[in-house]
Fold these 4 entries.
Entry 1:
Amino acid sequence: MADSTVEVRIGSGPSNVSAFAERGLLTEIENLVAQVQDLYRSDGIPWVVGYSGGKDSTATLQLVWTALSSLPAEERHKRVYVITNDTLVENPAVAAWVHRSHLAMEQAAAGQGLPVSTHMLAPEVGERFWVNLIGRGYPAPNRRFRWCTERMKINPTTRFIRSVVKDNGEAIIVLGARRAESAARAARIDRYDRRSVRDHLSPHSDLASALVYKPIVDWTNDDVWLYLMQTPNPWSFDNKQLLTMYRTASPDAECPVVVDTSTPSCGNSRFGCWTCTVVDKDKSMAAMIHNDTEKEWMQPLLDVRDQIADAAEGRNLRDFRRLNGRVSLYNDQHVPGPYTQDGRAHWLRLVLEAQTWVRSHGPQDVRDIELITMDELHEIRRIWVADKHEHEDLLPLIYKEATGQPFPGQTRFDDQFPFQAEDLGELRNLCRSDLQYELIRELISIEHSHRMAARRSGLWNDIKTAFDRSGYESPEEAIDLVRALAQGREAVGASATIGFDASWYEAVQSHTSAESA
């Protein structure tokens, strides 16, 4: 490898100066490897390397790996944990790449005598995407309500790092963060770097006993690709395949030659969850499907994602109440709540049908794919019946209709519940409205859940909550009552902020007063 290789450009980035411009690629990498080695040998604090399978984390891990393998065996004195957070809704092509990478790393580390171990992390079942969207009814994440990030990404990683800190007192987290990624990322890096307590180490934003090391922080996008293309992967993975994956995820499927600073860079694609609705369009998955015939089987996933992201369709499937049963207004406009029972059943059917299609029509290596796992299905069923009082227990039926297979679980979720699904169907027919049916069904469920209690404490509060939730003739009546309550408070000159969380009783009383005024 010669310094002149720095002239080989794969793409272009924004007008950023290459980290290799002054001393060349070879010298810069040698200096950086020496820096990694010095930091590694300076203490006994274990390292946790974040690896997503993308270009930045690959380059970072490759540097660490090279530094470790160049040290004498007796100086490799502390563990290096390579962690990947699998949200279980990752882009399937990327997820498969990462899982293969982990296997290759384990074999290579054992063969080379390196203190490196890989760890695939995942959110707990209650934190997962489908359990919250289909089970609890959370609306699709958006920029203002991004409920998924903390549950699915931050929490699993935090739990692992805290376990390392608990065992060792401290941890050093090695990340592939770069200033050139965005102005916001650069500002955030600079803010924490100003609080550095040691050379090259800055405090973690949330974990008091963790320090962060960013070895490629000053690299440009092109620097990353140049390094990956010019240096062999130490765990015997082909970095050119990584480049191909990025290229197929770009709309034009090209990595252009640099002509000026406006030339788009290869590898600007971003991979993430295939269910992500925070972005308007999943351009990387759409490009993969368009550019690679072997990825066409992912089209049903993209269709599901696009339907969930459709705000207009989603609004029609949402309840008029919040999860706590309250009606919410913002600037006198009604704010819809979680997905209704029909809405959640719709999304479940859609996901299971997509999974069934892929298993039947996809390539051999995805014939066992799980878009939604069995433990997630069991938790969704529990939430529907036990938490939401939906004793119709629809999940087994939906599963059988969508997959053609019986649901692998007990026939009835609660064998002691006095009503069968047919009985509840008759009850629905006898009720004047869906809200009346929901109220009576919930009251029966409450009485059933309290029937064996020695002290039926909480019974009356549960009954009051049921009336607060469903004690209306129609959604329109509930919204009008809460709006009347808000207007009544304004009329008497209330100085306190209106929380729009009135109970059914309060709303009725206010509406009655307004009508008689």
Entry 2:
Amino acid sequence: MNEQNNEVGQIIGGSVGSNILLRIKNDSDVDVGDILICEKNETKYYLKVVDIEIASQLGSQFLEEIAGTNLEHNEELFFFDEKERFYKICRAKILKIRSDNFYPPRNLPEHFDKARKVVKDDFDFLENKKGVSIGYLRLGRKELREVEIKLPSEKLVSHHMLVVAATGKGKSNFTKVFVKGLLEIPEVACIIIDPHGEYYGNKGIVGLSSFPERNNLLFFTPRFSDHPESEPLKIYSQDIEPNDFFGIIELSDAQREALQLSYKVFKEEWLSKIIKENVQKLIDSFEKKVVPGTILALKRRLANSLELDGDEGLVFSLKKREGTSIFEKIINAVMKGKTIIIDTNLVGDEAEKIISSSISTRIFNYYRKKKQANTEKFANIPELLIVFEEAPRVLGVDALAKGTNIFERITREGRKFKVGLCAITQMPSLLPKEILSQMNTKVILGLPAPADREAVINSSTQNINDESIEIQMLDKGEALITSPFIEFPLPVRIHYFNDLIKSARKERKTNVFGFG
């Protein structure tokens, strides 16, 4: 493209610590979120438009008088040198400066240096990037389809991800797109806790099972009879430990001590004994260290949380397991780089949290012991990403007031053991600052609430202090992505998941019927 025809403005002021000011060429189509280039002496300044205002050489009193005359008398207006007198000023931040390499903005372009819109060649540094394709470079309202954005999954997975957006802005669509890409990368495994039954696919719902890579999926569901290729989501009491409840459901100190004592006395029968055994027998077994009221409260609490009807519930069972435990099956699948989807759509909030906690605990402990046993072999096992929605339920301030849990521990220690979290929420302001700061990659898909924007902006690894207006105005499928593994925060138009499925089906037909 002719760079002169692509010019949109000139530098008229600014500072390193604030914004660059540009006068915009009349009729130039510039939006908040656009990326501009100011180029001089083989150095490129990458500028991000963060605000636009209208300006005039005329005084405000004169402008008010002209507007009043026009409104009251409907007189047609004529101005000499109209384009020179009335114009737009945009404020832009310097994202990075590029010569041989990228470096932070420590100097400025000069007065009257020209700025132009970006072209494909300005993003040649992205061309050979490996990773998961998530969309195209977004420039304001438009997109540059010649520039595909990929996230370096193997680098960022264990450093945790946060996906934030208001309802309907595309959180689930992004997650499906990203996980679809992980299906093609054997070096990365994924566990998805699915509370809405939307990731695998079902009648009327298009999911990951629609892709050719479905062989890399393992689906656990209580409705296994409806899905012949699935595994039963069934957890037996002998495989559950007291720690699976701590920090997940509300327990008094006496109740916590009773759980631990039961585990010490009855071993793997501890849970079925508490729920089924006679109160007096339990008191005797505990050597009168636990009072009857605590035992009775625990019986009700545990049975309700596990949603048991007698010995059996939809997911949990007090019966003796036959065959391989669900935890072993999940660990084996993770070691093969598979994506595991856990369908919790039919269970209540507490049962879902216990399911996700017990699975996450087993897999995290497995990774931790693997590293301790042999660091060389550990280096060859897949990175793991655990995806869960409504993150404040287990990582929020109120949730952590019940005590630390496995998710909080993974945010602190996970990267040492190749285990990362992908936390999805529409209310990041409910998460503690310490948790938010651990989520190094943030996918921001539109946040109208000021408190939520502030929480994300203040905890990002890259400076996005000036992007609050853009974040507020992001439309469905539009994202701003910040990560230490990309050169600067990237505006992206996320792929539409259903379009990826259509492309995959079309490609499959071409492979079947094509010649050569």
Entry 3:
Amino acid sequence: MAEEKRPVKITETVLRDGHQSLIATRMTTDEMLPIIDKMDKVGYHSVEMWGGATFDACLRFLDEDPWDRLRKLRDGFKNTKLQMLFRAQNILGYRHYADDVVEYFVQKSIANGIDIIRIFDALNDVRNLETAVKATKKEGGHVQTAISYTLGEPYTVEYFCHLAKQMEDMGADSICVKDMAGLLIPYEASKLFKALKETVKVPLQMHSHYTSGVAAMTYMRAVEAGCDIIDTAMSPFALGTSQPSTEVMVKTFQGTPYDAGVNQELLLEIADYFRPIREKYLASGLMNPKVLGVDINTLKYQVPGGMLSNLVSQLKDQHAEDKFYDVLKEIPEVREDLGMPPLVTPSSQIVGTQAVMNVLFGGRYKVATKETKALLRGEYGQTVRPFNKEVQKKVLGEDAEIITCRPADLIPNELPKLREEVGEYLQQDEDVLSYALFPQVAMNFFKERAAGFPAKAEKAKKAAEEKAAKEAAKNAPKAPEGPKEVVKYVPASAPFLGAVPGYVPAVGEIPPMAGEAPAVPFAPGQSAEGQCSVNGAALNYQVNCLG
């Protein structure tokens, strides 16, 4: 009997996580717009194009309004669902926000064109998902909650299934296993997705990164075990710290029960479009070849590749590279002390930096970062295991007040105060949300916008001039190779002599550059050399005055 067809669906990430992972989220809206008509005809399940770090990068580095990007892409994608990444109570920023800010951000995101909101919490604390989930449901959006996948003793298949069931019960329309570091290996993916499929009824999605080299194989096993949707990126912005290639995964499943059924010819044309953009960022240095390979240490030490590179950088700054393996041994100890959080942003940075502090600065927790203190106070939420009480006491003191409720319950409404602070710079309702997430960056952007973006205009003018100069140099006639022509006798009509410094035409000769010939005549024995054009061809010349 023929196997039942179960086509895998594709979420394309090239407009968000693909370039966020490889070029620090620097792809501009103008680079995206020319290709979206073709992308809209592929047959994607969705295109992820907003959220994550795109918001910050638009305001901070690109002088772009992220809301304007969303509206433009919404206008272009007539048939494809648009998707964003949302950090639960952190929205797209780096702290917990009041519920009124979270609700308003969801409202405006959907009003401006988002269809699917992927909501995750770094600690897998479902309490931090509640407000964003309810707001998305209220606005008619698709709620996709995400499990932050990680390794460690508490993180069993049973744990993840329990988490998925909680998410389904709170209203999730689909659930994503979000493996930010590429730690889920293929046969473990088979076990996990088989169990998840037996636990929940909603569609399941898989998100991974190619950092450890196993993501494509993991996708295959996940799909075979019941995964419905996979995240992929067009090949010019795939692999390395990005996702598996869209074209490769589509071709892999072709002719199987999981055939995605998308237009592969269009995929090739789309890849051709993005290839010069990739080359541009490679040439500029923004795309570092180091992020394009496989970092096997990710699997060896069971920590994300980015976390390892951060450790190396921190130790190098302290001239303590020889302490690298001491820090690696300290990481699991610190992680255990801090409640075994998933090693994802921001907890991976908190654990890694504290491990460095413990090794370098005279003993464990003699120096603690403010983020370590905040985590131990409960400001980020509840961890899978209790904190080490002795460490908590040492870092915070005997009488520190510990947060045990949902952290946002302690944050009063913020929107009225934020609107007042934005004041005269408010040009659209959404501006208050940009300001809420990145106050200083947004205010700088608002001031530039009010002035007509002079810095951006100057930068664009300079870029255009440089491009024109390169084109001119590229199209200029090339001088023939070999020795210079030595001119001993030149007839009066020789046209190129008008370009020779010091040449004065003979009486009765019409100079080719009338009125521009130099006033100083040649003296006997004087010579001149250079390059000029004769009948459209470049000529290297040397002229000797024989008297």
Entry 4:
Amino acid sequence: MNATPTTSSPRPGPQGGRPSPSGAGAATAGVTLDPLKILQKYKYVLVASVVIGMIIGVIGHKVLMRVAPRYTSQVIFKVNPAETELQRTSVSTVDETEMDRFMGSEVESMKSKLVLSKVVADPRLPQLAPEWASNYMKGGRIDIVDSLDDLKDMVSAGIIPKTFYIRMAVTTSNKTDAAGLVSLVKETYLAELDTRYKRDVVSRRTAIRDSIQAANSQIEELTAKKTRLVREERIDSINSESSTTAGQMNMVNARLVEIQQSLEALEVARLRDESQLNRETGIEYDSTLRAEVELLPMMQTFRQELKSLETALLSLKNQGIQPGHRSYKQITNQIEAHERKIEKAREELLRERFESRLQQTVITIAQLRAQEADLLTQKEQLEEKLTELTRISEEINDIDRLIDTTITRKGSLEQDLTELQASSALSSAQRVSVIEAETVPDLPSFPKIIIMVPAGVLLIVGLTAGVIVAFELLDQRIKSASDIRMIPRLNPLGIVMDASEDPVKIADVATAFNDAPDSVFSEYFRQLRATLAKRMDHAGHKTLLICGVNPGSGATSVSTNLGIACVATGIKTLIIDANMRRPRIAESFGLEDSHPGLSDILTGKSDFAQSVRSIENGPDIIGAGTKEFRQIERLGSQDMRALLAKASAEYDMVLIDVAPAVVAGDAAVLANQCDATALVVRAMSAKRGQVARVARELGECRAEFFGAVVNGVKSAAGGYMRKNIRESFAYLVNPDEKKDKDSKKTDQDKAA
């Protein structure tokens, strides 16, 4: 059900302080509105605003039709893509960018000052738009300045989306004037377009012919330049000369490579021989040099002489002459001397030949260096010649390319000139044509009933909704539990419906739980009982102070019905009437208030047992007591604390009813002696700032502050409650009907 109380998390026991809710100033922060609730609450007002808006729309339509009707006459133009006789343009090849630019330009041209100035100066204007023209007649002539300003506001033009059509319209208060003016604007625009087109064709033709003449002049200049260059540079055989020079360059390069390789080898040989010459251990002659020396005639003569001596020595041996013989020794000595002579001669010849070879190597290197320098000079000259030949050739090629490009451009210009001349003769040369001419309008363009009625509805409904929202935002009254949630750190414990809306007629609200236990009103107290009992039991509390915000909050009826509901579940409950100013607990149960009660106990005139009064099917109560003994200051005494301690020892639940917090400070006094407190707020009576202030005061006391109960909530304030009340009543009072409906629905589901 919608009235299910909301519980907060358990708080600590009675010892220690409590975190207090913020003050009244913060109560208005974060205000939110439920659109569905507002619609439910003000639905009839909104429906009435819709009806009023429709009526105002109809009335406005009739008034405007009589006072200021507006008639619109229009012309539709079609814009054709650019095409020529030689090349037709299809839709698939239309240049969208060019078309958009062209159409945009024409739209502005239709509304331009040039066209409109010619319209207001047209002598036909008084005949085609007599009523409009009469407004600007001065001395038999039309005032150009004023009429032009007015006409600018009346003429409109625009591209019809996703088409190649342009819509041009004139809106005025007379339908004949509208048709006449749009006709004049159309004719003036088309005449201006034709003039502009012809002027453009002439201008383009002249520009193309000038470009062709310039191309011819450029071709002649380039041809003359080429002829002069060929003649001055004698370029008749430039290709053969380039080939010959390139061949010579190749030969020079090849010879240079050969010489450089030889120089490299000779330098290596020179360095090797010079190093041999400077060796301390002497020269180590190579086999080639030795072979050359051995082939010299001197060396051959020496070897021949040595061979003759060796032959003589062999002859002596054959004759049997011994080595000790004088002749044998003589020949032996001659052989040794001759060998020394040969060796000396060989060394001298090797040295001579080695030095000669080294000298020849140096000479050869010098000769090759000279040849290399000469070849490098030749190469440089050939490169310069080739470069010059290449430059001349490139210059001639550039001239040829420029001539070809100019000839191509000239051909393109001649083709453009041909196409321009051809297109100017085509019927479609004018790209803008009329496809829908102007007519005298039968119906006004404004006002229209289909626009005025919705506009009236939007206006009135918007104003009404704005007033409703402003009222809801400015209305600080507590209407339901959602308003309690707007107050920071204040949780709603639950709501109690307005007893007058219960389908079961409740005679006495204070004992409704006993009188009508099956009522929806009683069901709200069952839910409130469950919430409070759970929190009291969880925290180990026994005494609960129930305090109203202001007079009429219904704290007494909440206390009595809650007490009866607790007794119904077996909770031993005691209600103490601590409202010394206007006690109502005893009266609510139909008892006299003269019986000893709280005031008698606190003044010692009676004890606890004598003051307790039992109620059949209800809680025990302790009334306010004898009127003469009612001293409010004693509510904060040790006797009151002792009374609560004794009550807590004998009862499971002790409810204390107290005077409203706004008119008395009794609640704050008792909140410092009880275990817990709950605030009762009357819907549509207390304001958020007021509730926040009281909640803050109670939160600063010793008792744990549970939250607030919204009492007397009407269905109009919640939006959903009326339906919930009906469904709850049907469920509680007619259970058999509910079973029949469920059974029928089950049968229907099975059949489906």
